[in-house]
Amino acid sequence: LGEGKPENQNHAIIFTRGEGLQAIDMNQDNYMEEALKMRNLLQEFLKKHGGVRNPTILGLREHIFTGSVSSLAWFMSNQETSFVTIGQRLLANPLKVRFHYGHPDVFDRLFHLTRGGISKASRV
């Protein structure tokens, strides 16, 4: 027995196909601009990175389209934007750390399937 979201993601991974796996939320919008980015994003898994290990997780900025609903939603949207643009970039470079934080991340499916899944399932 564990938390709902990590348990569901780790259970659902066995039903997926292909090499790239994108984790999205059920209320996330999939508009045309996001679909156009996907081809270039998946090429990052195939590109040679000059002796450095190939990436296993690629993070994308989440577009929060409910930011205009209320002042609280606007504040939370700005908080998300500042964390993604400042916090995660600092973690990525120079610290070389990348955790699965948001929904639109794309994973190397085989790498994560052989290492226990894409989410840490903690006991409740």
From TrEMBL:
Q: Which organism is it from?
A: Opuntia streptacantha (Prickly pear cactus)
Span of domain Glycosyl transferase: 1-124
Q: Does this UniProt record's set of keywords contain Membrane?
A: no
Q: Which GO terms describe its cellular component?
A: 1,3-beta-D-glucan synthase complex; plasma membrane
Q: What is this protein called?
A: 1,3-beta-glucan synthase
- Report the InterPro entries cross-referenced here: Glyco_trans_48_dom
Q: What is its EC number?
A: 2.4.1.34
Q: Does the keyword Transferase apply?
A: yes
